Amino acid sequence: MLIRKAANILPSEITPEQHYLNRRRFMQSAAVAGTGLLLGSNTSAQDIPKQYRRFGNLLKSPLSTSETPNSYEDITSYNNFYEFGTGKEDPAENSAAFQPKPWQVTIGGEAEQTGTFDYDDIVGPHPMEERIYRLRCVEAWSMVVPWVGFPLGDLIKRMKPTSKAKFVAFETIVRKSEMPGQRSRVLRWPYIEGLTIAEAMHPLTIRATGVYGAELPNQNGAPLRLIVPWKYGFKSIKSIVRISFTEKQPPTSWNLSAPGEYGFYANVNPAVDHPRWSQKRERVIGANLFAGKKPTLPFNGYGDQVASLYSGLDLTRNF
Amino acid sequence: MPKLRHIRFVYKPIVFAACLMPFVWLLAMAFELGDLDLGANPVEKIQDTLGIWGLRFVLVTLSITPVRQLTKMNWLLQFRRMLGLFAFFYVAMHFLNYLVLDQTFSLSLILEDITERPFITIGFTAFLLLIPLAITSTAGWRRRLAKRWQQLHYSVYLVGLLGCWHFYWQVKKDLSEPLIYVGILVLLLIPRLLKWRQQLRPSPAGEASRD
Hints:
Helix content of chain B: over 70%
Largest sheet of chain A: 7 strands, mixed
Largest sheet of chain B: none
Number of strands of chain A: 12
Number of domains of chain B: 1
Order of helices and strands of chain A: HHHEEHEEHEEHEEEEHEEH
Largest interface: A-B, 33 and 27 residues
Mean pLDDT of chain B: 91
Distance between the termini of chain B: 19 Å
Radius of gyration of chain B: 19 Å
Strand content of chain A: 15-25%
CATH superfamily of chain A: Oxidoreductase, molybdopterin-binding domain
CATH topology of chain A: Sulfite Oxidase, Chain A, domain 2
Number of helices of chain A: 8
Mean pLDDT of chain A: 89
Order of helices and strands of chain B: HHHHHHHHH
Oligomer: heterodimer
Strand content of chain B: under 5%
Number of strands of chain B: 0
Low-confidence stretches of chain B: 206-210
Helix content of chain A: 10-25%
Distance between the termini of chain A: 36 Å
Number of domains of chain A: 1
Radius of gyration of chain A: 19 Å
């Protein structure tokens, strides 16, 4: 097993006293300091750059997994965010110029409360929770991520969707000057995603605002993103600026780009392979070099909670 | 033209060391020398690095003949076998990494991959095609096979084609990088195709260049 060296700590990186209490609170609430040692995830509060504000008083959730989260380093240096490039190290490398503050979200469509809202109006009323979830990428790798966020359903209830609202559509910001990946036409911009209203209201579905007890870094979808842990990662759309309630199933980016390979539902399903590669197993990021892959579970292991959403639906055809 | 003695004792060792650099680099990353590491997905990093260098060496080997013809630097031919063997080395290590670290020897899954995943079928075929070329790369085999040696070694074009295809098919979406390799391959194939067309026509001089 490869052992990572702790990064050298510069004097400038030593936590100022005023942050110290916040950090203690974070350590207590995130509960990562102890468990992190078990499997080699050696993330501590110092690993999180201090420009990211810490969330205080995080609520714990019974929906969190007890699995050990990946290190902050792995979570923030290896992911897909095509707005910053197609390589998995590109988001971390190319997102420094992105400005997630100030932020506004426009809510539209079949709801009573529509209009443009500031970040604080969207997030403010909701207590923040820690949700430790498995994340399974369609590329057959997986991580465990301690997100911070709140149930999307709670936000939806505040927006009072009408009876016509059968789906929820999401849209990522377009900002070519700060998102170099958007200068390429590899996908159509803006990136768009969608859920059925039942999926959106499910208690597992959250709007994430942070990771490891601190604000989301740009590369992970700052300042607001979706997390739907039983679906392939590309459904969990990042840096959201628009939410619309619709009567018809909204188009989604990867489905538009390759309809034979990526469906609307995109539920994690080892029984339905990607046309070009197997979905039966997954590479666990952060595992021992010789650990091999582990079997992928239906609905990414969340079947008990979500399988009933799809009763009667042919999941082979509706992949 | 450099002296044969210089090629053998100076240039060849230098080229050999240079060809080994990607592998040394991988080892340095694996042992985390300095600030280096293999990143969050080490198995993928090893797999991709070995694969891309395998393809690069196939293309570099294929470029020797056209470059030699353009520049008249016939001594370049002295390096072709070494470059070809490095192509085999990187492709073989790429396969070995797939077998050991990626699939951890689970034969049923490997068999399923090779038979059901077209991009793996194609990559595996390219690897198989390289084996006889590596074995018969010695002077002895070249002499024994005589004319058939050249015919056998023409299959390296197919390896280049399959290698590019394998790369093209495993990419999720951004095809720009594989397309660069396809472009280079096409560029390298053009002079050959022109020559083969000439050879198919009955030429009055009746002379075909050998290589």
